Amino acid sequence: MKDLPPEALEQIAGYFQVLAEPTRLRILNLLREGERNVGELAQACGFTAANVSRHLSLMTKHGLVERESRGTAVYYRFADESVYALCDLVCGNIARQMQASVKRQQAFFGAA
């Protein structure tokens, strides 16, 4: 991100904002298994089709998912596999932080 203009930083922040919503992460995780339509995603998530559709629209706008119309249904699939790598990296980092926190707590309580 070195030497990026403010406009580019705003785009990057917008991209991360899309990933900062648990419902969208859940949808992306479902799409990891393969393409699905809005109804299938809504049923799997336990949300309304309108809610899922709104999230998919935003993710499409930011290039995370692609949509394809087939008859009366629209199917969504993942557009950028690198997001999975990014999410896996973040999950690994969080797991390491949690492990370190547990070790610190054990050291503290073990000293008592």
TrEMBL record:
Keywords: Arsenical resistance, DNA-binding, Transcription, Transcription regulation. The keyword DNA-binding applies. Residues 4-98 form the HTH arsR-type domain. Gene3D superfamilies: Winged helix-like DNA-binding domain superfamily/Winged helix DNA-binding domain. CDD domains: HTH_ARSR. PROSITE patterns: HTH_ARSR_2. InterPro entries: ArsR-like_HTH, HTH_ArsR_DNA-bd_dom, HTH_MetalResp_TranReg, WH-like_DNA-bd_sf, WH_DNA-bd_sf. It comes from the Bacteria. This is Metalloregulator ArsR/SmtB family transcription factor. It comes from Acidovorax lacteus.
